[in-house]
Amino acid sequence: MEYKRILLKLSGESLMGNQGHGIDSGRLSDYAREIGEIVEKGVQIAIVIGGGNIFRGLSGAAKGFDRYKGDQMGMLATVINSLALASALQDVGVRTRVMTSIRMEPVGELYSQPKAVDALNAGEVVIISGGTGNPYFTTDTASALRGIEIHADVMLKGTRVDGVYSADPEKDPSARKFESITFDEVYRKGLKVMDLTATTMCKENDLPVLVFNMDQCGNLLKVLKGEKVGTLVH
Q1: Of residues 39, 41, 53, the one with CA closest to residue 89
Q2: Model pTM?
């Protein structure tokens, strides 16, 4: 395997499947099976999930919600998604622990770096929910922070597109895909890989980010085998 310990970032929107909202149980089961395959091969996995399928603080603010409250609602949405994924993983026999950035036992255990690392070493999948626990930070930033804290080899950013492009491939047919790109090039070209805070944190702490299409079954295993999937940002 290419990596021994990973931080897997999943988008909340991907959990919608084709429903357009909420959580698609079929998509959840697909993710659980793929993650279970990786765990069987001895890879340690921590997961951060977005909440955009339920509520997104920024779009809430645009509709008149106070941004501070909107972001707190978004954090709770990530907890709902994390519990759903934990349930799906347990159904396929994967030992899982949900940790929350905000104290809310018995929903989840309050996140701490030593406990998360101990759980990873014991073969558990650790799902870290609640973002950073603070408003005005995205789940991309939470992923960068947690990936750095647990000493992950890489952040795998599972999205609906198969890598980083020079422009939005859904809008611009001439957009070209990068096999690899540096953080500095991402800045210079103004590419929307992650928000700037997350990008800066990864760059300064030498945490590479691999952007790939998680909705294509089998891609997660291919990434971990070192096959050419997605785009490596380094």
Answers
A1: 39
A2: 0.94
Instruction: Tell me how many domains the chain contains.
Output: 1
Structure tokens at 87: 């349930």
Note the helical H segments in 105-165: 113-121, 139-149
227 Cα distance to chain centroid: 20
130-169: pLDDT as tens digits: 999 999 999 999 999 999 999 999 999 998 888 999 888 8
CATH number of the structural domain spanning residue 103:
3.40.1160.10
Is the separation of the CB atoms in 51 and 75 below 8 Å?
A: yes
Cβ count near 168 (within 10 Å): 10
State which residues form the domain around 151: 5-233
Is-contact 147 199, C-beta < 8 A?
A: no
DSSP H or E segment with residue 189: helix 183-189
Over residues 34-63, mean pLDDT? 87
